[in-house]
Design brief:
Mean pLDDT: 92
Function: Catalyzes the NADPH-dependent reduction of L-glutamate 5-phosphate into L-glutamate 5-semialdehyde and phosphate. The product spontaneously undergoes cyclization to form 1-pyrroline-5-carboxylate.
CATH architecture of the largest domain: 3-Layer(aba) Sandwich
Structural class: alpha/beta
Catalytic activity: L-glutamate 5-semialdehyde + phosphate + NADP(+) = L-glutamyl 5-phosphate + NADPH + H(+)
Distance between the termini: 73 Å
GO cellular component, one term: cytoplasm
Strand order of the largest sheet: 9-10-8-7-11-12
Number of strands: 15
Strand content: 15-25%
Keywords: Amino-acid biosynthesis, Cytoplasm, NADP, Oxidoreductase, Proline biosynthesis
CATH class of the largest domain: Alpha Beta
Low-confidence stretches: 11-18
Shape: globular
GO molecular function: glutamate-5-semialdehyde dehydrogenase activity; NADP binding
CATH superfamily of the largest domain: Aldehyde Dehydrogenase, Chain A, domain 1
Length: 432
């Protein structure tokens, strides 16, 4: 009888354990309650939280850098990946300044986006509101946690963070500073939460959190983003790759072109806004391409070039079809010689990822042809693709770059983290 009772109790225990909500579900439920509070909190309180979080980041700088050193010590990744993972005093300060820049932005919540009056006297207006609970799944870059939390606080959203195992210690130290800012402003700490550990099961739980998480934003490699897009039961805002192009037109200023492509490729090779492919007009390639190659090679860049480029610079390694579709995130640049703007656009349409493209030219008509001819989220004229960044756009920071067609495109800042509702104001009207 005892054995039977023990067996029955074991089944009951297993059943209860199987039906018990996972840790991310518990956090998401708490975040949902916090989101309701934050959505109705005055902008001044949310701004106080950002200022206090910035101060907490600076105060905890030594602790954050010590945690980051532990992550770096455990990492066996390549140099470009380690650069994304690395925090320095300057990068911690940049996180703090980003939060202060967000606090100085106008309140995105409650904006009247449009207003009109119907013939029956009804006044209708579309008003910006927070999305609700946003889940952010990110890898390697610990600063994403601060940027995402700050943008969500500013826009009245709660956020559920799940960083990668490689940045676990750094992410938790940054998260502690963000919650300190919420406490200082008397706002619920549950508005910014982080996964308790790096268990991969937390990702699956977030993907299935329909009704608890309103929007998922993955920040990481292609495999992560594709998994989220494939398996999520929650709307996703993402880009799979940053396969960015810089096209040097025949009317480009040579010195400007050299300066732009050097920055676009080599400033930081591991970010999604780095140029991965150089397209150069055949008319100017013989004189300009060798100079560009020498500039980049001096900074350690490698190359993959098409046949036309190798006729000009013979010692360039040959590019394959796969190379032109590769986001290197490293000191490697694809090169193709093209015959005019239409051929450049055809190359981008074939290999691009709808992220960021740039043209260097003094011909305004050609620049407009290029900008109107690509469907990428961001297009630039006479500027480095590395300006595709929320901070550089004046957003304070970004929670990601969106390359889809709906809701938001390009750097996602506070305004892009709002949706809207319709408010209808009547004076007793009834419908016939």
């Amino acid at each position: 009888m005892k054995a039977h009772e023990d067996g029955e109790q074991s089944v009951i225990t297993q059943t209860v354990a199987a039906s018990a909500p996972g840790p991310m579900t518990v956090l998401a439920k708490r975040a949902r309650l916090a989101a309701r509070t934050l959505a109705t909190t005055p902008s001044s309180a949310r701004d106080r939280a950002l200022w206090a979080a910035a101060a907490a980041l600076r105060e905890a700088s030594a602790t954050i850098l010590e945690a980051n050193a532990r992550d770096l010590e455990a990492s066996t990744a390549n140099d470009a990946f380690r650069d994304r993972l690395t925090l320095t005093p300057e990068r911690v300060e940049a996180m703090a300044r980003g939060l202060e820049d967000m606090a100085d932005l106008p309140d995105p919540v409650g904006r009247v986006l449009e207003e009109w009056t119907r013939p029956n006297g009804l006044r209708i207006r579309r008003v910006a509101t927070p999305v609700g609970v946003i889940g952010v799944i990110y890898e390697s870059r610990p600063n994403v946690g601060a940027d995402a939390a700050g943008l969500c606080i500013k826009s009245g959203n709660a956020v559920l963070l799940r960083g990668g195992s490689e940045s676990l210690h750094s992410a938790r130290a940054i998260h502690a500073a963000m919650q300190a800012g919420l406490r200082a402003a008397d706002l619920p700490e549950d508005a910014v939460q982080i996964a308790p550990d790096a268990d991969r099961a937390h990702v699956a739980e977030m993907l299935g959190a329909a009704g608890l998480v309103d929007l998922l934003i993955p920040r990481g490699g292609r495999s992560l983003v594709e998994r989220v897009q494939k398996d999520a039961r929650v709307p996703v805002l993402a880009h799979a790759e940053g396969l960015c192009h810089t096209y040097i037109h025949s009317a480009a200023d040579p010195s400007m072109a050299r300066r732009i492509i050097l920055n676009a490729k080599m400033r930081r090779v591991g970010i999604c806004g780095a140029t991965e492919t150089l397209l150069i007009d055949a008319a100017i390639a013989p004189g300009l391409l060798p100079l560009i190659v020498a500039d980049l090679a001096e900074f350690g860049c490698g190359f993959k070039a098409d046949a036309a480029a190798r006729e000009i610079v013979p010692d360039l390694p040959a590019a394959t079809e796969k190379d032109f579709g590769t986001e290197w995130l490293d000191a490697m640049l694809n090169i193709a010689v093209v015959d005019g703007v239409d051929e450049a656009l055809d190359h981008i349409a074939r290999y691009g990822s709808s992220h960021t493209e740039a043209i260097v030219t003094s011909d305004e008509a050609v620049a407009n042809r290029f900008m109107n001819g690509t469907d990428s989220a961001v297009v630039m004229w006479n500027a480095s693709t590395q300006f595709c960044d929320g901070g550089e756009f004046g957003f304070g920071a970004e929670i990601g770059i969106a390359t889809g067609r709906f809701h938001a495109r390009g750097p996602v800042g506070v305004e892009q983290l709002t949706t809207f509702r319709y408010e209808v104001l009547g004076t007793g009207q009834v419908r016939t």
